[in-house]
């Protein structure tokens, strides 16, 4: 019989990663993401992204507070992951002290927030699905965005002391690979049966789709690039 000291271990983390590989690839292929990673977007576009993320994390981290004492979801909650204070600092950096008066959630972000409210406050597996989708992305792929923003040399990007990059900086997690390994161990030892694991996979896929819709809407806001004139 499984106990807290000797939980039954599954291979759910690998299964979850494999089953959602396509969604992950589609998120990375979004034009907004590709442009951001290649250094084609200015800091205003990055601030637009941060603004939408602020509204999503506002709900997700309220759910984390509600789930903190849950036997299943509670172990996933870590204050080292909290992003709201970092988002506030970055938005202040890019948009000024009245940043909250400037940002507005898009319809796509509101749909995302609605789903977070629907499943993250009373379904542990649903909370973990959305927690996994966002925070592991920040710890992994988000670092490539950080590198792209750091490389900007137009004078309007992050400051020399790291101002404007707080969202993608995790000073309390100095060894990110080790943290991700521990997180995957939590997934493997959560004790979900096959049916619940399938529900969580389905919810992670939905979380990716909701995030992709947010990114697609941001891409539609950007002016199309001006084609270069051919030299005669």
Give a quick account of the main beta sheet: strands, pairing sense, barrel closure: none
What is the arithmetic mean of pLDDT? 88
Strand content: under 5%
- In CATH, the topology is named Heme Oxygenase, Chain A
Structural class: mainly alpha
Q: Provide the helix percentage.
A: 55-70%
Q: Going by CATH, what is the homologous superfamily?
A: Heme oxygenase-like
Number of domains: 1
Molecular shape: globular
How far the N terminus sits from the C terminus, by CA atoms, comes to 79 Å
**Tally of alpha and pi helices:** 11
* Backbone CA Rg: 19 Å
Give the name of the CATH architecture: Up-down Bundle
Task: Note poorly predicted spans.
Answer: 1-6, 226-232
Q: Give the helices and strands as they follow along the chain.
A: HHHHHHHHHHH
User: Under the CATH scheme, which class?
Assistant: Mainly Alpha
| Quantity of strands, as a count | 0
Protein name: Heme oxygenase (Biliverdin-producing)
InterPro entries: Haem_Oase, Haem_Oase-like, Haem_Oase-like_multi-hlx
Pfam families: Heme_oxygenase (PF01126)
Organism: Saccharopolyspora rosea
Short description, anyone?
Helix content is 62%, strand content 0%. It has 232 residues and is mostly helical. Helix 4 runs parallel beside helix 7, helix 4 runs antiparallel to helix 8 and helix 8 packs across helix 11.
